[in-house]
Amino acid sequence: MEPGEFDITGKTPVNVRGGLLGKGNPTAATGIAQLRELTCQLRGQAGERQVNNPTSGLAHCCGGDEGMATFVHILSK
Asked: CA–CA separation, 23 vs 30, rounded Å?
């Protein structure tokens, strides 16, 4: 891994909007927030957070009390 690789201008940008903790980790809204951000990125509508020419994105969300649920979504153009 190179320094800055996961920054917005790096090879593999991660959490360019601050991740779920940047949103306060709202219960039940986190997965939708991740998918919305990926959709905006892929459409080129992310404004100052826009990643340069994204072709795909991955969202991972897990939660639940007694029955853990894990979802992985991969979106692409």
From this structure: 8
Q: Taking CA 2 as the corner, what is the angle to CA 37 and CA 72, rounded to the nearest 5 degrees?
A: 35
* Dist CA 36 CA 42 (whole Å): 10
Cite the DSSP H helix spans in the chain.
30-43
Q: What is the pLDDT of residue 67?
A: 60
2 lies in a domain?
A: no
> What is the C-alpha separation between 20 and 54, in angstroms, rounded?
20
Domain count of the fold of the chain: 1
Structural domain for 25, as ranges: 21-76
- Flag whether 67 is in a domain: yes
9-54 pLDDT tens trace: 999 998 888 777 777 766 667 788 889 999 999 999 999 999 999 9
Residue 25 corresponds to which tokens in the numbers above?
A: 């980790």
